[in-house]
Every structure is written in C-alpha cells, then in structure tokens.
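In keeping with the milestone schedule agreed at the kick-off meeting, the structural modelling team has produced records for the first pair of proteins. Each record is given below as a sequence line and a structure-token line. The laboratory manager (R.T.) confirmed that both were archived under the project's standard naming scheme.
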Amino acid sequence: MKSLVSIIGPTATGKTKLALLLAEKFSQNFACIDVISADSRQVYKGMEIGTGVDMPPDFKREVGENFFQKGNERMHGVSFLRPDEEWSVTHFQKFAREVIENSWAQNGLPMLVGGTGLYHRHLFNDDPQLEIKPNEEVRKKAVTMSIAELQNWLQKVDATKWELMNNSDRQNPRRLVRAIEVALSEKPRDEQKSQPPFTHIEIGLTDSIEHISEKIRQRVEERLQNGVLAEVEKLIADYPPEVWKGPAFSATGYKEIRQFLEGTLSREEMIELWTRREIQYAKRQLTWWKKDFKGQWFDVAEKDWMNTVYSMCTKI
C-alpha cells in the first residue's frame, strides 16, 4: 500500500527537523524519502534566511535539479522560484502530486511538511475555484482602489463570501481581489473531494503560545545574526517596488527590515514588529489547525513524544 506522512503545526515547533530525522531513520526501509515543503514562502530563491529554510549543509542540489539530496533523501519545494514568479495553491497542488506519484513509483515514502494550511487541505481535493485564472480586468481596476472600495465591491458581488471572511482577510487586498475574481467567474463552486488509495499518517506538532513566542524571538535574533539584513538589501537591489507588493514579500520580516534599512523604523521597532507578526501568524495557524486537522497531536514540550511518532511510522 502506498503511504504518505504529513507533518503540520504552527511555526517554530520543529516540523522540518522532525521530517529530516524521520527521513534519516527510515531511509533504509524505502528506495527514497521525498520530503516536500508545504510552505508558501520558502519556495523563493534568495529568501532562505528570512523564511527559515532549514537545509542541512550535507544536502546538495545537482545542476539542473529543483531538489536537494543526501543519499536517497530528497528535499523538494524550497529555493527554486524567483520572488517575481507566480506561485499559488494550484501550482503547489500540481507540483506536490507529481513528486508524490514519482516517489511512489520508485517505492519511496513522500512526506509533506509545513504550516501552510491550504496546501495540505487542497493537496487531494479537486476544488474548481483553484482553476479560476486571474482576471486581468479586475486586477487592473483593483490597483486604483482603496481597501474600503474593494470591500464594497466584494459585498456587492458576493455578500456570503464577505460574511465568511475573518477580519484579517477583509483587510488583505490580495484576498479581496481573489474573492472578487471567483465571484465573477462562472465556474462551479462545489468542492469535490477525491479519496486516493494510500495510507496517510498525519502528525501534528504543537506547543504553548508562550513557548512558541519565545522561540520566535530567539529565531528573529538568529536570522539577524545569520545575515538577513544583507539578504534583504540584495532583494531591494534586484527587484523593483511593484514586485515587493506581491506574495513573496508578504513573508513576515521582509517589509519590516526594508523599513529599517530605509530609515523609517529603528532596529528595536523593526525587531518588535517582525516578532509580533510572527506570533500573530502562529496564533492564526493554531486556530486553523484546531478545526481543520484530523490526525494525532504531539506536544513538543512533553517527554518522549518523538518515540511515539517513530512507533506510528513503523506501521507504514
């Protein structure tokens, strides 16, 4: 029977670390282990420090390949797109399915790892809305509109969608525009769920928000020490302001660092804002996964939780 391991949870709980430990532990049992990053920002090249790509130095990328490899262990979905290239749930779905099918064809074990909830939800769900292409007319008009005007537009074309949106989405111009595009499309809106035949082990990592917040603070300091300021300086030089309005640079930290480099924030203010955004993101992830996860949770602050995870995976 084909198998898939999914590791989910909020940021700063050690998902990638666990995946690499499992890959090494079970690499002798499979022809290959294919770890797939389900992180919507780690796909971009030149943003490895700020987005926290945890790539061990012994993983190497061969010329012409989009994955990193150590022996029969492979890491997919990190550092392979420019920040000005398009990437979406639909792109991820197609990409991840192909990696998984190729892994199974080679008698391998694919592992899906990351905190972007929509990526996990839609991996094997065929949602017609994902196929709706960008509406250039809508986007051209939206560029000239304020948040309030976009909100009014969505309420007129799809009041139900507006009511279902949380406050964060209502303040997000990209999500408002996408909702308007979907509302104006004639595509069907029923989500069809497929049931592919495979064994799916779902592992959820969690921790108290206090512990997560402390790890985030430490991680922000580590990324500053590891050269994220120079990383952002190069990105500013390489990409014009219109690219900075796109999805890639909505990753936490980048806009705050840019404001610091341009002199509109002090170092202390930059660190505080960046840290706060990371913590807010972790809280949203916790809320998402509490209502959207059907697997087994593991508190990483508890003793011996990893041994239980190992035992689960031996059943594959």
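The second protein of the pair:
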Amino acid sequence: MPVSVFSAAKRLAARSGWKLSHLEIQKILYLAHMVYLGKTKGDPLIKGHFEAWDFGPVHPELYHRAKIFGSSAVQNIFQSDPDLPDGLEQNILDEAASKLAGLGAGRLVNATHRSNGAWERNYRPGERGNIIPNEEIWKEYESLTHVQV
C-alpha cells in the first residue's frame, strides 16, 4: 500500500540529519519510488503522483509544503505525519538515503533527467501539471536493470 509523501520525506530528511534540500528530497523520493515500482512489479511507493517540472520530477503536494525552505535544508515540518512502519517501503527509503543523500542536487537532477526517461517523455518546458505515469517510471527502471545477453 502506498505511503504518504510526507512520511516518506520525513524518513529521508531525518536519516540525513535534516541536511537535505527540498530538491534533493524530491529527487531521492522519485528514485526510491522508481526502485519500488520495479521491485514490486508496478505497485507505487508514494501516494499521489510525480509531475515533470523544469528541474525534474516533483511531487506537487510535497512541493507546496516544503517550498518555504528554498534551497536550504528542509527542517522537521512533518511532526504530525506518522513514522513509516517496518517493511519494504522503509527499507527502500533507507537504502535510497544511504546511497543518494551525499550525491548533491546536481547529480540527483542528472539521474532523473535520463535521455528518453519517464521525466523527459513527459516534460514540457515551463509547464507544470504534466503527470509522469507510474507505468513509464516502471519502464525506465526496467530499462536500467535489464541485462542484454
């Protein structure tokens, strides 16, 4: 069952010691969502949807709550959001945090802007509201993990 984007963001930010920017949280959540889709054969990690914005995939609900931090580290604006229970969702987020949190915003943007990837196929310069379908995110994961013999 998909988890709240706010609970997922809370998990990532807390694991980083509250050092991640809003952009970094958005990109790490998107990549974790992609991995989860792949591992579960299409079940979403995050409730809601990601949209193709100028700086990559954005979950609009999270954007509107965390935009007050600009490019600074997001602080704990998630006190009222429940912690995630133990399980695959938490494991995927923890793995994403440990592998991606130190990459920096630029490298995370590059990782989500792959040529012919889900973001690129749905992006229209200057537009917001273009949903990146989970099926396309899953296909991108499959294309990245598919080993050709």
